[in-house]
Amino acid sequence: MGCPKMTEANLYLTMKGTNEGIIVYLDDQCSFKALLNELGSQMKSETIENTTEVIINCQNRYLQDWQLDEIRQVVEEQSSLKVKSIESNVLSHEEALTWFDQTTIKPFVKTVRSGQVLHVEGDALILGDINPGATVNATGNIFVMGQLKGIAHAGYAEGTEHVVVASYMNPNQIRIANKISRAPDYEVQGSSQEFAYINQETGQIELDQIHNLQKIRPNLTDIVERGL
Amino acid sequence: MGEAIVITSGKGGVGKTTTTANIGTALALQDKKVCLIDTDIGLRNLDVILGLENRIIFDIVDVVEGRCKLQAALVKDKRFDCLHLLPAAQSSDKNEVTPEGIKELIDELKPDYDYILIDCPAGIEQGYKNAVAGADKAIVVTTPEKSSVRDADRIIGLLEQEELEPPHLVINRIRKHMMDSGDMLDVDDIVSTLSVELLGVIMDDEDVIRASHHGNPVAFQPDTKASICYRNISRRILGESVPLMSFDEDKGIMVKVKKLLGMK
Protein backbone atom coordinates (compact mmCIF):
# COMPACT_ATOMS: atom_id res chain seq x y z
CA MET A 1 0.00 0.00 0.00
CA GLY A 2 2.98 2.30 0.64
CA CYS A 3 2.82 5.56 2.45
CA PRO A 4 0.02 7.71 1.09
CA LYS A 5 0.40 11.31 0.15
CA MET A 6 -0.26 13.34 3.18
CA THR A 7 -2.99 15.84 3.27
CA GLU A 8 -2.76 16.58 6.95
CA ALA A 9 0.44 15.60 8.66
CA ASN A 10 0.73 14.33 12.17
CA LEU A 11 3.24 12.24 13.96
CA TYR A 12 1.44 8.94 13.67
CA LEU A 13 -1.79 9.70 11.87
CA THR A 14 -2.41 10.49 8.27
CA MET A 15 -5.83 11.41 7.01
CA LYS A 16 -6.81 11.29 3.45
CA GLY A 17 -10.04 12.00 1.68
CA THR A 18 -10.97 9.56 -1.06
CA ASN A 19 -14.04 8.65 -3.05
CA GLU A 20 -14.87 6.06 -0.43
CA GLY A 21 -14.66 8.64 2.38
CA ILE A 22 -12.04 9.64 4.88
CA ILE A 23 -9.30 7.10 5.42
CA VAL A 24 -7.17 7.42 8.53
CA TYR A 25 -3.80 5.75 8.13
CA LEU A 26 -2.19 4.69 11.37
CA ASP A 27 1.57 4.49 11.72
CA ASP A 28 2.62 0.86 12.06
CA GLN A 29 5.98 1.39 13.79
CA CYS A 30 5.12 3.34 16.95
CA SER A 31 3.79 1.73 20.10
CA PHE A 32 0.10 0.96 20.28
CA LYS A 33 -0.25 3.19 23.32
CA ALA A 34 1.29 6.20 21.60
CA LEU A 35 -0.99 5.57 18.67
CA LEU A 36 -4.09 5.50 20.83
CA ASN A 37 -3.03 8.69 22.61
CA GLU A 38 -2.53 10.57 19.43
CA LEU A 39 -5.70 9.18 17.95
CA GLY A 40 -7.61 10.40 21.02
CA SER A 41 -6.19 13.92 21.02
CA GLN A 42 -6.44 14.26 17.27
CA MET A 43 -10.05 13.18 17.23
CA LYS A 44 -10.93 15.58 20.00
CA SER A 45 -9.56 18.49 18.02
CA GLU A 46 -11.46 17.39 14.97
CA THR A 47 -14.04 20.01 14.19
CA ILE A 48 -16.33 17.98 12.05
CA GLU A 49 -19.77 18.33 13.53
CA ASN A 50 -21.93 15.95 11.54
CA THR A 51 -21.54 12.19 11.71
CA THR A 52 -19.09 11.17 9.04
CA GLU A 53 -17.89 7.64 8.43
CA VAL A 54 -14.19 6.95 8.41
CA ILE A 55 -12.17 3.96 7.37
CA ILE A 56 -9.20 3.20 9.55
CA ASN A 57 -6.19 1.60 7.93
CA CYS A 58 -3.64 0.01 10.26
CA GLN A 59 -1.18 -0.62 7.41
CA ASN A 60 1.32 -3.31 8.42
CA ARG A 61 0.39 -3.53 12.07
CA TYR A 62 -1.35 -6.68 13.23
CA LEU A 63 -4.10 -5.85 15.71
CA GLN A 64 -6.05 -8.25 17.83
CA ASP A 65 -9.76 -7.99 18.39
CA TRP A 66 -9.50 -6.11 21.68
CA GLN A 67 -7.15 -3.58 20.08
CA LEU A 68 -9.57 -3.04 17.22
CA ASP A 69 -12.32 -2.44 19.76
CA GLU A 70 -10.18 0.10 21.59
CA ILE A 71 -9.46 2.05 18.43
CA ARG A 72 -13.11 2.07 17.56
CA GLN A 73 -13.98 3.22 21.06
CA VAL A 74 -11.44 6.04 21.12
CA VAL A 75 -12.57 7.42 17.79
CA GLU A 76 -16.27 7.23 18.51
CA GLU A 77 -16.01 8.62 22.05
CA GLN A 78 -13.77 11.55 21.21
CA SER A 79 -15.52 12.67 18.05
CA SER A 80 -18.74 12.40 16.15
CA LEU A 81 -17.04 10.24 13.54
CA LYS A 82 -18.24 6.69 12.93
CA VAL A 83 -15.80 3.92 12.15
CA LYS A 84 -17.02 2.23 9.01
CA SER A 85 -14.34 -0.42 8.96
CA ILE A 86 -10.82 -1.14 10.07
CA GLU A 87 -8.48 -2.39 7.40
CA SER A 88 -5.07 -3.93 7.59
CA ASN A 89 -2.44 -5.24 5.20
CA VAL A 90 -1.67 -8.19 7.45
CA LEU A 91 -3.56 -11.10 8.88
CA SER A 92 -2.60 -13.91 11.19
CA HIS A 93 -1.50 -17.30 9.98
CA GLU A 94 -4.66 -18.83 11.38
CA GLU A 95 -6.92 -16.30 9.65
CA ALA A 96 -5.05 -16.85 6.42
CA LEU A 97 -5.60 -20.58 6.65
CA THR A 98 -9.29 -20.14 7.39
CA TRP A 99 -9.55 -17.76 4.47
CA PHE A 100 -7.75 -20.22 2.23
CA ASP A 101 -10.01 -23.00 3.45
CA GLN A 102 -13.15 -20.98 2.79
CA THR A 103 -12.16 -19.84 -0.65
CA THR A 104 -10.61 -22.86 -2.34
CA ILE A 105 -12.50 -25.52 -4.23
CA LYS A 106 -12.01 -28.98 -2.77
CA PRO A 107 -12.12 -31.79 -5.31
CA PHE A 108 -13.25 -35.33 -4.44
CA VAL A 109 -12.75 -38.16 -6.92
CA LYS A 110 -15.22 -40.69 -5.58
CA THR A 111 -18.78 -41.91 -5.55
CA VAL A 112 -20.48 -40.70 -2.41
CA ARG A 113 -22.57 -43.70 -1.38
CA SER A 114 -25.72 -44.26 0.61
CA GLY A 115 -25.18 -43.51 4.29
CA GLN A 116 -22.00 -41.52 3.72
CA VAL A 117 -21.88 -37.88 4.79
CA LEU A 118 -19.23 -35.65 3.27
CA HIS A 119 -18.64 -32.34 5.01
CA VAL A 120 -16.64 -29.75 3.12
CA GLU A 121 -15.35 -26.33 4.19
CA GLY A 122 -15.60 -24.05 1.19
CA ASP A 123 -16.65 -25.24 -2.25
CA ALA A 124 -16.97 -28.92 -3.09
CA LEU A 125 -16.22 -30.36 -6.51
CA ILE A 126 -17.47 -33.94 -6.69
CA LEU A 127 -15.96 -35.87 -9.60
CA GLY A 128 -18.34 -38.79 -9.28
CA ASP A 129 -21.93 -39.51 -8.33
CA ILE A 130 -23.79 -38.63 -5.19
CA ASN A 131 -25.96 -41.70 -4.78
CA PRO A 132 -29.43 -41.82 -3.20
CA GLY A 133 -29.14 -41.68 0.58
CA ALA A 134 -25.76 -39.93 0.50
CA THR A 135 -25.25 -36.39 1.79
CA VAL A 136 -22.75 -33.71 0.84
CA ASN A 137 -22.63 -30.61 3.05
CA ALA A 138 -20.49 -27.67 1.98
CA THR A 139 -20.15 -24.23 3.51
CA GLY A 140 -19.73 -22.93 -0.05
CA ASN A 141 -21.06 -24.14 -3.39
CA ILE A 142 -21.39 -27.72 -4.56
CA PHE A 143 -20.41 -28.71 -8.09
CA VAL A 144 -21.21 -32.26 -9.13
CA MET A 145 -19.63 -33.59 -12.30
CA GLY A 146 -21.55 -36.86 -12.02
CA GLN A 147 -25.12 -37.60 -11.12
CA LEU A 148 -26.65 -35.92 -8.11
CA LYS A 149 -29.18 -38.38 -6.75
CA GLY A 150 -28.74 -37.90 -3.02
CA ILE A 151 -28.80 -34.81 -0.83
CA ALA A 152 -26.66 -31.75 -1.47
CA HIS A 153 -26.56 -28.95 1.08
CA ALA A 154 -24.78 -25.82 -0.14
CA GLY A 155 -24.15 -22.79 2.05
CA TYR A 156 -24.21 -25.12 5.03
CA ALA A 157 -25.36 -22.95 7.94
CA GLU A 158 -26.15 -19.62 6.34
CA GLY A 159 -24.88 -19.09 2.81
CA THR A 160 -28.04 -18.11 0.96
CA GLU A 161 -26.05 -16.99 -2.09
CA HIS A 162 -24.56 -20.41 -2.74
CA VAL A 163 -25.63 -22.80 -5.46
CA VAL A 164 -25.69 -26.49 -6.26
CA VAL A 165 -24.61 -27.29 -9.81
CA ALA A 166 -24.89 -30.79 -11.24
CA SER A 167 -24.28 -32.29 -14.63
CA TYR A 168 -27.24 -34.57 -13.94
CA MET A 169 -29.79 -33.38 -11.43
CA ASN A 170 -32.16 -35.91 -9.84
CA PRO A 171 -31.70 -35.34 -6.11
CA ASN A 172 -33.55 -36.63 -3.04
CA GLN A 173 -33.25 -33.13 -1.65
CA ILE A 174 -31.47 -29.89 -2.29
CA ARG A 175 -30.72 -27.74 0.70
CA ILE A 176 -29.31 -24.24 0.57
CA ALA A 177 -28.70 -22.39 3.84
CA ASN A 178 -31.88 -23.08 5.82
CA LYS A 179 -34.13 -23.89 2.85
CA ILE A 180 -35.03 -27.40 1.82
CA SER A 181 -36.53 -28.53 -1.42
CA ARG A 182 -37.34 -32.15 -2.14
CA ALA A 183 -38.11 -34.19 -5.21
CA PRO A 184 -41.81 -34.64 -5.99
CA ASP A 185 -43.65 -37.76 -4.83
CA TYR A 186 -44.10 -39.07 -8.35
CA GLU A 187 -41.26 -40.57 -10.27
CA VAL A 188 -39.29 -38.00 -12.21
CA GLN A 189 -36.65 -38.15 -14.86
CA GLY A 190 -33.66 -36.10 -13.87
CA SER A 191 -32.38 -33.32 -16.05
CA SER A 192 -28.89 -32.54 -17.17
CA GLN A 193 -26.83 -29.41 -16.72
CA GLU A 194 -28.85 -27.65 -14.08
CA PHE A 195 -28.23 -25.67 -10.95
CA ALA A 196 -30.25 -24.86 -7.85
CA TYR A 197 -30.29 -21.50 -6.10
CA ILE A 198 -32.46 -19.50 -3.74
CA ASN A 199 -34.61 -17.06 -5.65
CA GLN A 200 -34.50 -13.95 -3.47
CA GLU A 201 -37.95 -12.82 -4.61
CA THR A 202 -39.80 -15.99 -3.70
CA GLY A 203 -37.36 -17.13 -1.04
CA GLN A 204 -37.57 -20.64 -2.46
CA ILE A 205 -35.05 -22.98 -4.02
CA GLU A 206 -35.41 -23.05 -7.78
CA LEU A 207 -33.75 -24.92 -10.62
CA ASP A 208 -32.50 -23.40 -13.82
CA GLN A 209 -30.42 -24.28 -16.84
CA ILE A 210 -26.71 -24.00 -16.29
CA HIS A 211 -26.29 -21.29 -18.94
CA ASN A 212 -28.39 -18.96 -16.81
CA LEU A 213 -25.98 -19.26 -13.90
CA GLN A 214 -23.96 -16.29 -15.12
CA LYS A 215 -27.09 -14.13 -15.06
CA ILE A 216 -28.33 -15.30 -11.68
CA ARG A 217 -25.04 -15.53 -9.80
CA PRO A 218 -22.61 -13.33 -11.74
CA ASN A 219 -20.28 -13.12 -8.74
CA LEU A 220 -20.06 -16.85 -8.16
CA THR A 221 -16.32 -17.01 -8.58
CA ASP A 222 -15.48 -13.82 -6.70
CA ILE A 223 -14.25 -15.94 -3.89
CA VAL A 224 -12.37 -13.11 -2.24
CA GLU A 225 -15.69 -11.53 -1.38
CA ARG A 226 -16.50 -14.52 0.73
CA GLY A 227 -15.49 -15.44 4.21
CA LEU A 228 -13.25 -12.75 5.60
CA MET B 1 -2.38 -69.94 -0.93
CA GLY B 2 -6.13 -69.54 -1.21
CA GLU B 3 -8.23 -66.48 -1.70
CA ALA B 4 -10.89 -65.47 0.81
CA ILE B 5 -14.01 -63.92 -0.71
CA VAL B 6 -16.78 -62.51 1.43
CA ILE B 7 -20.31 -62.57 0.00
CA THR B 8 -22.39 -59.77 1.40
CA SER B 9 -25.36 -57.55 0.59
CA GLY B 10 -26.45 -55.40 3.52
CA LYS B 11 -30.08 -56.27 3.01
CA GLY B 12 -31.44 -59.62 4.04
CA GLY B 13 -33.15 -62.09 1.77
CA VAL B 14 -31.45 -61.15 -1.48
CA GLY B 15 -29.70 -64.50 -1.85
CA LYS B 16 -26.31 -64.29 -0.15
CA THR B 17 -26.46 -67.79 1.20
CA THR B 18 -27.82 -69.31 -2.02
CA THR B 19 -25.13 -67.47 -3.96
CA THR B 20 -22.41 -68.69 -1.61
CA ALA B 21 -23.59 -72.29 -1.88
CA ASN B 22 -23.85 -72.17 -5.64
CA ILE B 23 -20.63 -70.35 -6.42
CA GLY B 24 -18.91 -72.76 -4.04
CA THR B 25 -20.47 -75.72 -5.80
CA ALA B 26 -19.62 -74.34 -9.22
CA LEU B 27 -16.00 -73.78 -8.21
CA ALA B 28 -15.85 -77.30 -6.81
CA LEU B 29 -17.20 -78.60 -10.13
CA GLN B 30 -14.10 -77.03 -11.68
CA ASP B 31 -11.94 -79.12 -9.33
CA LYS B 32 -11.02 -76.29 -7.04
CA LYS B 33 -10.63 -76.87 -3.32
CA VAL B 34 -13.31 -74.75 -1.72
CA CYS B 35 -14.21 -74.04 1.89
CA LEU B 36 -17.50 -72.32 2.68
CA ILE B 37 -17.72 -70.46 5.99
CA ASP B 38 -21.09 -69.51 7.42
CA THR B 39 -20.68 -66.49 9.69
CA ASP B 40 -24.40 -65.97 10.24
CA ILE B 41 -24.13 -67.16 13.82
CA GLY B 42 -27.51 -67.77 15.40
CA LEU B 43 -29.30 -68.01 12.05
CA ARG B 44 -27.34 -70.57 10.10
CA ASN B 45 -28.71 -71.56 6.72
CA LEU B 46 -25.83 -72.50 4.49
CA ASP B 47 -25.74 -76.09 5.78
CA VAL B 48 -29.44 -76.50 5.01
CA ILE B 49 -29.09 -75.29 1.44
CA LEU B 50 -26.17 -77.66 0.92
CA GLY B 51 -28.09 -80.48 2.58
CA LEU B 52 -25.40 -80.97 5.21
CA GLU B 53 -27.36 -80.10 8.33
CA ASN B 54 -27.32 -83.62 9.73
CA ARG B 55 -23.56 -83.92 9.56
CA ILE B 56 -22.67 -80.97 11.76
CA ILE B 57 -20.84 -81.90 14.95
CA PHE B 58 -18.84 -78.80 15.84
CA ASP B 59 -19.24 -75.25 14.59
CA ILE B 60 -17.33 -72.02 14.13
CA VAL B 61 -17.87 -70.84 17.71
CA ASP B 62 -16.42 -74.10 19.00
CA VAL B 63 -13.32 -73.50 16.89
CA VAL B 64 -12.89 -69.86 17.87
CA GLU B 65 -13.32 -70.68 21.55
CA GLY B 66 -10.88 -73.56 21.31
CA ARG B 67 -13.31 -76.39 22.08
CA CYS B 68 -12.24 -78.33 19.01
CA LYS B 69 -9.65 -78.32 16.25
CA LEU B 70 -10.48 -76.52 13.04
CA GLN B 71 -10.27 -79.75 11.02
CA ALA B 72 -12.83 -81.42 13.27
CA ALA B 73 -15.43 -78.76 12.63
CA LEU B 74 -15.19 -78.87 8.83
CA VAL B 75 -18.02 -80.79 7.21
CA LYS B 76 -17.22 -82.58 3.95
CA ASP B 77 -19.75 -82.22 1.22
CA LYS B 78 -21.63 -85.39 0.33
CA ARG B 79 -21.05 -84.93 -3.40
CA PHE B 80 -17.49 -83.61 -3.62
CA ASP B 81 -14.33 -84.24 -1.67
CA CYS B 82 -13.04 -80.80 -2.47
CA LEU B 83 -15.97 -78.86 -0.97
CA HIS B 84 -15.99 -78.26 2.77
CA LEU B 85 -18.26 -76.29 5.06
CA LEU B 86 -17.46 -74.59 8.33
CA PRO B 87 -20.94 -74.17 9.79
CA ALA B 88 -22.15 -71.37 12.02
CA ALA B 89 -23.44 -72.02 15.51
CA GLN B 90 -27.17 -71.97 15.87
CA SER B 91 -27.36 -71.55 19.63
CA SER B 92 -24.93 -68.65 20.13
CA ASP B 93 -25.02 -65.10 18.82
CA LYS B 94 -22.80 -62.93 16.69
CA ASN B 95 -21.03 -61.29 19.60
CA GLU B 96 -19.37 -64.53 20.65
CA VAL B 97 -16.74 -64.26 17.95
CA THR B 98 -14.48 -61.34 17.12
CA PRO B 99 -13.12 -60.15 13.77
CA GLU B 100 -9.64 -61.16 15.00
CA GLY B 101 -10.86 -64.66 15.80
CA ILE B 102 -12.32 -65.12 12.33
CA LYS B 103 -9.28 -63.66 10.63
CA GLU B 104 -7.00 -66.08 12.44
CA LEU B 105 -9.22 -68.96 11.42
CA ILE B 106 -9.26 -67.94 7.77
CA ASP B 107 -5.50 -67.51 7.74
CA GLU B 108 -5.26 -71.06 9.03
CA LEU B 109 -7.51 -72.34 6.22
CA LYS B 110 -5.90 -70.44 3.36
CA PRO B 111 -2.94 -72.77 2.68
CA ASP B 112 -5.26 -75.77 2.26
CA TYR B 113 -7.83 -74.31 -0.13
CA ASP B 114 -8.03 -72.48 -3.44
CA TYR B 115 -11.09 -70.49 -2.45
CA ILE B 116 -12.66 -69.65 0.88
CA LEU B 117 -16.15 -68.23 0.53
CA ILE B 118 -17.50 -66.39 3.56
CA ASP B 119 -21.27 -66.10 3.84
CA CYS B 120 -22.00 -62.81 5.58
CA PRO B 121 -25.10 -62.14 7.69
CA ALA B 122 -27.47 -59.32 6.78
CA GLY B 123 -26.88 -55.96 8.40
CA ILE B 124 -23.82 -53.82 9.02
CA GLU B 125 -23.18 -54.66 12.66
CA GLN B 126 -20.94 -57.13 14.44
CA GLY B 127 -21.75 -60.04 12.13
CA TYR B 128 -20.77 -58.05 9.06
CA LYS B 129 -17.53 -56.91 10.71
CA ASN B 130 -16.69 -60.51 11.61
CA ALA B 131 -17.33 -61.73 8.08
CA VAL B 132 -15.31 -59.02 6.35
CA ALA B 133 -12.32 -59.24 8.69
CA GLY B 134 -10.45 -62.06 6.99
CA ALA B 135 -11.50 -61.47 3.40
CA ASP B 136 -9.28 -60.46 0.48
CA LYS B 137 -12.13 -59.77 -1.93
CA ALA B 138 -15.82 -59.09 -1.73
CA ILE B 139 -18.85 -59.98 -3.79
CA VAL B 140 -21.91 -57.82 -3.24
CA VAL B 141 -25.25 -59.45 -4.02
CA THR B 142 -28.24 -57.32 -4.89
CA THR B 143 -31.63 -57.79 -6.51
CA PRO B 144 -33.09 -55.35 -9.05
CA GLU B 145 -35.14 -53.63 -6.34
CA LYS B 146 -34.50 -50.13 -5.12
CA SER B 147 -34.23 -51.08 -1.47
CA SER B 148 -31.64 -53.72 -2.05
CA VAL B 149 -29.62 -51.52 -4.40
CA ARG B 150 -29.67 -48.80 -1.74
CA ASP B 151 -28.30 -51.23 0.84
CA ALA B 152 -25.75 -52.58 -1.62
CA ASP B 153 -24.55 -49.01 -2.13
CA ARG B 154 -24.22 -48.60 1.61
CA ILE B 155 -22.28 -51.82 1.95
CA ILE B 156 -19.95 -50.93 -0.93
CA GLY B 157 -19.26 -47.65 0.86
CA LEU B 158 -18.35 -49.59 3.99
CA LEU B 159 -16.25 -52.10 2.06
CA GLU B 160 -14.24 -49.24 0.54
CA GLN B 161 -13.03 -48.44 4.04
CA GLU B 162 -11.66 -51.97 4.47
CA GLU B 163 -8.41 -53.09 2.94
CA LEU B 164 -10.08 -55.05 0.17
CA GLU B 165 -9.96 -55.03 -3.57
CA PRO B 166 -12.88 -53.12 -5.12
CA PRO B 167 -15.96 -55.32 -4.68
CA HIS B 168 -17.69 -57.17 -7.50
CA LEU B 169 -21.40 -57.26 -8.07
CA VAL B 170 -23.85 -60.10 -8.57
CA ILE B 171 -27.41 -59.18 -9.50
CA ASN B 172 -29.79 -61.87 -8.39
CA ARG B 173 -33.40 -62.70 -9.34
CA ILE B 174 -33.59 -60.90 -12.62
CA ARG B 175 -36.97 -60.97 -14.31
CA LYS B 176 -36.58 -60.02 -17.90
CA HIS B 177 -40.18 -58.99 -18.54
CA MET B 178 -40.29 -56.72 -15.47
CA MET B 179 -37.06 -55.02 -16.47
CA ASP B 180 -38.46 -54.49 -19.95
CA SER B 181 -41.66 -52.99 -18.62
CA GLY B 182 -39.74 -50.64 -16.33
CA ASP B 183 -41.14 -52.16 -13.12
CA MET B 184 -37.68 -53.19 -12.02
CA LEU B 185 -34.32 -51.51 -12.21
CA ASP B 186 -32.41 -52.76 -15.19
CA VAL B 187 -28.89 -54.12 -15.09
CA ASP B 188 -27.30 -51.03 -16.61
CA ASP B 189 -29.00 -48.74 -14.09
CA ILE B 190 -27.78 -50.81 -11.20
CA VAL B 191 -24.23 -51.05 -12.46
CA SER B 192 -24.03 -47.32 -13.16
CA THR B 193 -25.49 -46.43 -9.77
CA LEU B 194 -23.16 -48.70 -7.84
CA SER B 195 -20.19 -48.12 -10.17
CA VAL B 196 -18.56 -51.46 -9.44
CA GLU B 197 -17.61 -54.25 -11.77
CA LEU B 198 -20.38 -56.71 -12.64
CA LEU B 199 -19.43 -60.30 -11.93
CA GLY B 200 -22.65 -61.82 -13.13
CA VAL B 201 -26.42 -61.84 -13.20
CA ILE B 202 -28.74 -64.64 -12.12
CA MET B 203 -32.14 -65.14 -13.60
CA ASP B 204 -35.08 -65.60 -11.28
CA ASP B 205 -35.81 -69.26 -11.55
CA GLU B 206 -38.08 -71.62 -9.64
CA ASP B 207 -35.40 -74.27 -9.90
CA VAL B 208 -33.31 -72.36 -7.37
CA ILE B 209 -36.04 -72.68 -4.75
CA ARG B 210 -36.68 -76.29 -5.68
CA ALA B 211 -32.99 -77.14 -5.44
CA SER B 212 -32.57 -75.43 -2.06
CA HIS B 213 -35.60 -77.27 -0.80
CA HIS B 214 -33.98 -80.58 -1.57
CA GLY B 215 -30.57 -79.57 -0.27
CA ASN B 216 -28.91 -79.79 -3.68
CA PRO B 217 -27.54 -76.46 -4.92
CA VAL B 218 -28.95 -75.55 -8.31
CA ALA B 219 -25.45 -75.26 -9.77
CA PHE B 220 -25.38 -79.06 -10.05
CA GLN B 221 -28.11 -79.10 -12.61
CA PRO B 222 -26.70 -79.12 -16.10
CA ASP B 223 -29.16 -76.97 -17.99
CA THR B 224 -31.29 -74.67 -15.85
CA LYS B 225 -30.78 -70.97 -16.44
CA ALA B 226 -29.74 -70.19 -12.88
CA SER B 227 -27.19 -72.97 -12.80
CA ILE B 228 -25.58 -71.73 -16.00
CA CYS B 229 -25.47 -68.23 -14.50
CA TYR B 230 -23.74 -69.52 -11.38
CA ARG B 231 -21.27 -71.59 -13.33
CA ASN B 232 -20.47 -68.59 -15.50
CA ILE B 233 -19.76 -66.58 -12.36
CA SER B 234 -17.38 -69.23 -11.12
CA ARG B 235 -15.57 -69.24 -14.45
CA ARG B 236 -15.21 -65.46 -14.23
CA ILE B 237 -13.79 -65.82 -10.71
CA LEU B 238 -11.23 -68.23 -12.20
CA GLY B 239 -10.24 -65.54 -14.65
CA GLU B 240 -12.04 -66.67 -17.80
CA SER B 241 -13.82 -64.06 -19.86
CA VAL B 242 -17.41 -65.23 -20.22
CA PRO B 243 -20.04 -63.02 -21.84
CA LEU B 244 -23.24 -62.28 -19.95
CA MET B 245 -26.01 -64.73 -20.71
CA SER B 246 -28.70 -63.48 -23.02
CA PHE B 247 -31.87 -62.65 -21.12
CA ASP B 248 -34.17 -63.70 -23.91
CA GLU B 249 -36.77 -66.27 -23.01
CA ASP B 250 -36.54 -69.66 -24.65
CA LYS B 251 -38.30 -69.48 -27.94
CA GLY B 252 -40.55 -72.27 -28.98
CA ILE B 253 -39.84 -74.30 -32.08
CA MET B 254 -42.51 -72.46 -34.04
CA VAL B 255 -40.77 -69.14 -33.39
CA LYS B 256 -37.53 -70.59 -34.69
CA VAL B 257 -39.26 -71.94 -37.76
CA LYS B 258 -40.94 -68.63 -38.40
CA LYS B 259 -37.64 -66.87 -38.03
CA LEU B 260 -36.07 -69.25 -40.49
CA LEU B 261 -38.80 -68.57 -42.97
CA GLY B 262 -38.36 -64.84 -42.48
CA MET B 263 -41.85 -64.41 -41.07
CA LYS B 264 -40.59 -62.71 -37.91
UniProtKB/TrEMBL annotation, chain B:
What family does the entry list? Belongs to the ParA family. MinD subfamily.
SUPFAM superfamilies per UniProt: P-loop containing nucleoside triphosphate hydrolases (SSF52540)
The record's listing under NCBIfam families reads: minD_bact (TIGR01968)
Record Pfam families: CbiA
The alphabetical list of record keywords is:
ATP-binding, Cell cycle, Cell division, Nucleotide-binding, Septation
Give all residue intervals belonging to the CobQ/CobB/MinD/ParA nucleotide binding domain.
Answer: 5-218
Q: Which InterPro entries match?
A: CobQ/CobB/MinD/ParA_Nub-bd_dom, MinD, MinD_FleN, P-loop_NTPase, ParA/MinD_ATPase
Task of the protein: ATPase required for the correct placement of the division site. Cell division inhibitors MinC and MinD act in concert to form an inhibitor capable of blocking formation of the polar Z ring septums. Rapidly oscillates between the poles of the cell to destabilize FtsZ filaments that have formed before they mature into polar Z rings.
Domain of life, source organism: Bacteria
Put simply, this protein is called: Septum site-determining protein MinD
